[in-house]
Amino acid sequence: HSEVRWIAAGESERSDSVGDASFLIVEKGFLVIRSALAERRGVILCHAGAGALLPAPLAGETLHAVVEARITLVSETAYSRLLTYPEVAAVLSDALRAIVRQKQLSIANFASVRHVERVQRKLFQLAREHGRVATDGVRLDFPLTHDLLAEMIGSARETVSRAIDRLERIGFLVREGRSYLLLVRPDALFSS
User: Fold this and answer.
1) Is the CB of residue 120 less than 8 Å from the CB of residue 129?
2) Which of 162, 165, 177, 187 is deepest in the core (most CB within 10 A)?
3) Burial 29-60 (b: 16+ CB within 10 A, else e)
4) Residue numbers of the chain with a pLDDT score lower than 70
């Protein structure tokens, strides 16, 4: 059993709203899974754009649409059935490995004590996974607020704002409305 659902930009859904979903297929949009404890700021655990998979959020986590999103919720029963098709199982395996790699990179980024480096590394990661090559760099075409970026790297918004200002001054990026253009060659994304 699979269900298709639209989530409006800026809206969140609690973990209990996905029922018995094993994972979610992002068909359109950009989503994050956020964990928030009452006494602490939120932390982004995972992010995905069109064509990617997300694990179903666990208790205490929310699914948040950064931009309008269309998702397919895949139940455990449907997942088990899909695994019986070798070609589909290979695609699912690749997608699940991508989630694990993303989480490894995100966790490794916490090792840097310099916030400018954390922000820069997260921007590289986002550009690799979700960027669009432009003539003058790589564009992140979704609203990436300082608050959202702060939740992605485990820092305060003010710290991220200072880091973004520094990265703009050194010519690493340009803010264009609510999105960013990284002034890098696309091949540089994979050498960092």
Assistant:
1) no
2) 162
3) bbbbbbbeeeeeebbbbbbbbeebbbbbbeee
4) 1, 37-40, 191-192
